[in-house]
Amino acid sequence: MIRDLIRHYLSFLVICVVAGLQFSCTEIQSKTPSPSTEVKESVVDDSLALFLSDFERDFIAGLRNKRIPGAGIAIVKDGQIILQKGFGIKKRGEPDTVDEHTIFRLGSVSKGFASVLAGTFVEDGELEWEGIVSDYLEEFELNDADQTNRVQIKHILSHTSGLPRHAYTNLIEDGLSINRIISRLDRVPLIAKEGEQLAYQNAAYSVIEKVLEAQTDIDFNTLLQEELFEPLKMTNSSSTYEIMSFSKNKAMPHVYHSRQRGRVSIPISKKYYNAVSSGGINASAADMGKWLLLLTGYHPEIISEETLDEIFEPQATINNKRFSRHWDGVNESHYGLGWRVLDNDGQRIVYHGGYVNGYRSEIAFAPDQNLGICIIINANSSYPLEVIPDFFNGIPD
Questions:
Q1: The whole model's pTM is what?
Q2: Which tens digit of pLDDT belongs to each residue from 189-202?
Q3: Are 132 and 166 within 8 A, CB to CB?
């Protein structure tokens, strides 16, 4: 009897061990992060810790040299946020300091949120990258009727619809609604056939908002909140002027003033809150760390790596080095769906920058290495453009 009990116990123990091993292997292979997105010291070895210490020291020195009032930074590696921090002050002349939850405007870094949001609807079968825009949105008409019937979702998200560069960006800045701007697109002479030429857009890009609203009968800002911000626990993120204005923990924008020989604070502008997908999102460094985890594949419950790869797939060649001039190793530069894609000596870097109303933001990540960084500042300075290439070229494996 005792021998039988021992035999049954040992058999049960073996089953438990095997099951435990299988569970552990599944956890290791999965790119799902732990529920907490706090900074994890466990993934930081001595060489990485030294690099981050030196990086932070040099970053602070650069902020001082460039006279940048405040900044936020987030770094992710292997599914964990390894650094999230605020630096400097929220407003010149006042003592309040920036922390990781201080809100900044993102400008064109908002475009990546729109393409990822669209990607979630592609996964659900409610949208197709090759879907004809006018089939989803009857009001969408270009100057050429045949081209209207050919332009696809991927063309408006890759700036290859055939419209000239920055078509009607002036109307966005004048405060017109996207609906009113869409009604005027047929007045603009086209410069190329769809898919043939990259010409950066804000108004045409924001057509994606109205496509998604037509498909769901839900406001675009609500879609952002329900599909991305809330699931990712991006509690400081929003997409309206009102929320930004009334936030107690926000960085104020700054511009250079020649008479005062330095940067001065200016009011927050309403510009681009009428075109959220192109430049109207507000977020903190802590939130951008969570966003980077999704972009590097660690939130498959929201969007799969396969769909992310579709979003990052190059659609058009970028023929100038304006945004890659600080990357010595960049051989090729392309645009995907809401993202620039750089070949950094064989390393795929997905990147975007943004500027709006005295704020600057830069985000870049290497999805194949599970590595990413975001820098947000409350001044118009190219400093983040200089910092990020050195980060990727210097961080230890």
A1: 0.89
A2: 999 999 999 999 99
A3: no
